[in-house]
Every structure is written in C-alpha cells, then in structure tokens.
Amino acid sequence: MAVESNMLPLGTKAPDFNLPDTISGKVVSLMEIKSTIATVVMFICNHCPYVIHIQNKLSQVVKEFQVKGISFAAISSNDVIKYPEDSPERMKEVAAKIGFTFPYLYDESQDIARAYKAECTPEFYIFDKDLQLVYRGQFDDSRPSLNIPVTGDSIKNTLEKMIAGAPVDTDQKPSIGCSIKWK
Q1: Which residues contact 25 (CB under 8 A, 6 or more apart)?
Q2: Strand partners for 27
Q3: Between the N and C ends of the chain, which has fewer C-beta atoms within 10 Å?
Q4: What span, in angstroms and rounded, lies between the C-alpha atoms of 100 and 94?
C-alpha cells in the first residue's frame, strides 16, 4: 500500500548522521557531504516499485547537479530481515548497476529515518547551505501507475532556484511510495 511522506516542517535543521556507505565501505557523516549550496538527503531502497520507477532518472539528475556543487546522499532504512533485497550487499549491487555517484547509506538501527520523520521510499529532503530544510516531498508527479514521464522536475526546479539564489516555492507535494519497513 502506498503512503505519503510526512512533510517535515520547513526550516528544520538537518539531523546529523554517521552511516556506513555500502558503495565505499566507509562511514559517511552529514558534515562530510554538506554543500555550500544545497544538500539532498534521499530515503530510497532496492525493492520499492516507486523507487525502481525513478532510479535511472534520479541517477541522471544527481550527476547533472553534482557538477553544479550540490551534494547528495541516499539512505535505506528498511528491515533487511523481512526484506533481504534491501541488504547492504544488494544496495551495493544496485548502486553499481544504476551508476549511483552518491553515497548509498545503510541505516540499520532506523534511528536516522526516525530523526528525519521519513515515512516512505522515495522521499526527498533538500537543505540549504546552513542545513535548514527548504524542500521535502516528491521527485516529480510521475508514479508507476501513471502515464507521466519521469523528469525529476520537483527536485530540479528547487535546486535551480537555490543555485540562482531565488526563493524556493513553499507549495510542495508529498512523495508517495512504499512505507519504510520498520522492525
């Protein structure tokens, strides 16, 4: 069953994290990836059809904006006992297959998902240079069941405004996806 994101209040300070990156094998902190323009924290996983639907375009959008000084990190917080396809080993495989150029972090304790009040995958949070929340919600209007192309426009429009120093639209749509699989 699909659920909507929680819509953390704008202006919320980014919760810090120190999580293992399934790609590099290193522990990565929020402060290590923080950008002077915008930092994007994404909750995704391997098995969710909503994530699978956007993952190729997501990889392209990330690459497009990384060269503009934006940083990205993805976090998977699902219970891997009940959902072994979301295990760190499988995360590393998916990251290689899709060509992720950002850390794909494993939140085994689920504490970071709780700190962000994450509810679903995919779910996106964009923080400004001071790590204040300026955007939370969807990647774009596309869903697996809709005949709408995957564009990443919700994220792209926000990041373009931040790069230009323009105000970010506060009328934001929640993400819709699979619930985080709590232990």
Answers
A1: none
A2: 20
A3: N
A4: 8
The number of beta carbons lying within 10 Å of the beta carbon of residue 26 is: 9
Q: Which residues of 70-100 are buried (b: 16+ CB within 10 A; e: fewer)?
A: bbbbbbbbbebeebeebbbebbbebbeeeeb
Nearest to 56 by CA among 157, 142, 177: 142
Q: How far apart are CA 130 and CA 51, in angstroms?
A: 28
Segment 118-168, tens digit of pLDDT: 999 999 999 999 999 999 999 999 999 999 999 999 999 999 999 999 999
pTM of the predicted structure, to 2 decimals: 0.97
Q: Which of 113, 127, 130, 100 is nearest to 180 (CA)?
A: 113
The total of other beta-carbon atoms located within 10 Å of residue 37's CB is 15
- The β-bridge partners of 41 are 73, 125
Residue 41's φ and ψ, nearest 5 degrees, are -115, 125
